[in-house]
Design brief:
The complex is a heterodimer of chains A (218) and B (252). By secondary structure, chain A is an all-alpha fold. Chain A has a single domain, classed as MetI-like fold, CATH 1.10.3720.10. Helix content of chain A is 78%, strand content 0%. Chain A contains nine helices and no strands. By secondary structure, chain B is of the alpha/beta class. Chain B has nine helices and ten strands. Chain B has a six-stranded mixed sheet with strand order 6-7-8-3-9-10, with helices on both faces. In chain B, strands 2-1-4-5 form a four-stranded antiparallel sheet, with helices on one face. The longest helix of chain B has 16 residues. Chain B is globular. Classes of the chains: A mainly alpha (218), B alpha/beta (252). The structure holds adenosine-5'-triphosphate and magnesium ion. Magnesium ion (MG) binds next to helix 1 of chain B. The site of adenosine-5'-triphosphate has 11 residues of chain B, from strand 2 and helix 1.
Chain lengths: 218, 252
């Protein structure tokens, strides 16, 4: 049996829906992982142990264990304590927290690297600690590490395929469905790979534009 | 005699074991221009920074505009008290500390808008006037990275003035500048002095101190060693330490 890509159009709807779910999963998780990443980073820099401690715990949990296990834990494990999440939400939570922990590490170092003078200048004008962080320190820190955060977001896109195992009909699972129906594994895996590649290129382009915009003041 | 705007009594400051300020008393009247001089490490910056509480005080009292600056308060209340206080005290730093991600104009409008001094439109209007005053009307949309040191420092002065402070603190604001850029910054300070802004100027530039100030404080080893009008401190110092310091500086 040779390769026959003419089979693909028959399953195009399935693949498009899968792509859509992958993009949705990635974009929502990206946004959340960045926001939570900033919050974690700031919490880790707190003087109060009780504020730092939960982040340290999350970091230990999410850096030290496989993402797959984290997915299972959130999707199947939380049911036992009465939290019945749908698969998409569970996927978003797992991806967000997993990458938030990495993002927060990157952002925290960037915050530490900001000159003390920036903090003093803001406070000397009468800005509160919160205003100083949100308006002067964090924007600079995040802008300074846009490339590193961009790499994380590209990794997130690829790792999102793992969410197929809990039944989210994203691109990988859609391809598998097409395969089990048509028995054409090579064609559909290749098609999925091509689509991932295109989405990836788009994301890389977006990262590059963000990088250029955030570096505009340098 | 008017009530002093800054009143310092028995001020001491330690960094761990190191005693940096050893008991400072000082009164600054509204509209006075203080020059704070002294050898490196004598505690000039520390003294300046205790006034707006960038440094906490170990002992003693600082009063600003009739209010005790270093009152013991619960954390939240202290934060609010400090934010309020600092809105009325402008500070300019040796290394400018402009916000690099904001344009010159945005540097100036940030605090007034965030702290609701004025609407955004009013703040922009006001910022343009201030930038014009420091000679940088045409640089409003520049990011700090595209400004010279002297221009940066003038933006920093405009930024501090935007909160319409009652007191301005200057910590060696020309020390990091190329010599040819010192004049433009000094000119702005001179202008402020002529408008009777109350100022405390820490400087190693004694000629400028003599030119601009109406009161000179010579600090040595964490204490005020001598103070008086510039004509006295510079031309007829009473203390041996002052004489030695001046001699050394003018020899270099
Ligand atoms: N945050 C700090 N921690 C520990 N020691 C400090 C700190 N800030 C200042 N010091 C010390 O306090 C002393 C006084 O410093 P300060 O900066 O007030 O001197 P200065 O008169 O401004 O000197 P310069 O002319 O060099 O700026 C110095 O011995 C300095 O090393
Ligand atoms: Mg100093």
């Amino acid at each position: 049996m040779g390769l026959d890509f003419t089979i693909i159009p028959e399953y195009l709807d399935l693949l498009i829906a899968g792509t859509w779910w992958t993009v949705a999963l990635t974009v929502v998780s990206m946004a959340m992982s960045l926001i939570i990443g900033v919050v974690f980073a700031v919490m880790q820099l707190s003087r109060h142990r009780l504020v730092r401690w939960p982040v340290t715990f999350f970091a230990w949990l999410f850096m030290g264990t496989p993402l797959l296990l984290q997915l299972f834990l959130i999707y199947f494990g939380l049911v036992q304590i009465g939290l019945d999440l749908n698969a998409f939400v569970a996927g978003v939570i797992a991806l967000s927290l997993h990458f938030a922990v990495y993002n927060s590490d990157i952002i925290r170092s960037a915050i530490i690297a900001i000159d003390d003078g920036q903090y003093e200048a803001a406070r000397s004008l009468g800005l509160s600690q919160f205003q100083t962080m949100t308006r002067t320190i964090v924007p600079q820190a995040v802008a300074n590490v846009t490339p590193a955060l961009g790499n994380m977001m590209i990794a997130l896109l690829k790792e999102s395929s793992l969410v197929s195992v809990i039944g989210v009909m994203e691109l990988t699972l859609s391809a598998q469905r097409a395969i089990s129906d048509s028995f054409r594994s090579f064609e559909f895996y290749l098609a999925a790979a091509a689509i991932y590649y295109v989405v990836n290129l788009t994301l890389e382009q977006a990262v590059r534009i963000t990088e250029r915009r955030s570096a505009r003041y340098r | 005699m008017t009530e002093p705007i800054v009143k310092i009594r028995g001020l001491k400051k330690n960094f761990g074991q190191l005693e940096v300020l050893k008991g400072i008393d000082m009164d600054i009247e509204p509209r006075q221009i203080f020059a704070l001089i002294g050898a490196s490490g004598s505690g000039k910056s520390t003294l300046l920074r205790t006034i707006n509480q960038l440094e906490e005080v170990t002992e003693g009292e600082i009063w600003f505009d009739g209010e005790l600056v270093n009152q013991k308060l619960p954390h939240r209340q202290r934060e609010r008290h400090l934010n309020q206080l600092r809105q009325n005290i402008g500070m300019v730093f040796q290394h400018f500390n402009l916000f690099p991600h904001l344009t010159a104009l945005e540097n100036v409008t940030l605090a007034p808008v965030l702290l609701r001094r004025s609407s955004k439109a009013e703040a922009i209007e006001q910022a343009k006037i201030l930038l014009d005053k420091v000679g940088l009307a045409d640089r409003a949309d520049y990011y700090p990275s595209r400004l010279s040191g002297g221009q940066k420092q003038r933006v920093a002065i405009a930024r501090a003035l935007a909160m319409t402070p009652k007191l301005m603190l200057f910590d060696e604001v020309t020390s990091a500048l190329d010599p040819e850029l010192v004049g433009e910054v000094n000119r702005v300070m001179k202008e402020l002095a002529q408008e009777h802004m109350t100022m405390i100027i820490v400087t190693h530039d004694l000629r400028f101190a003599e030119d601009v100030s109406d009161h000179v404080v010579f600090m040595a080893d964490g204490l005020v060693a001598e103070q008086g009008p510039p004509s006295q401190v510079f031309r007829a110092p009473q203390e041996e330490r002052t004489k030695a310091f001046l001699q050394q500086v003018f020899e270099d």
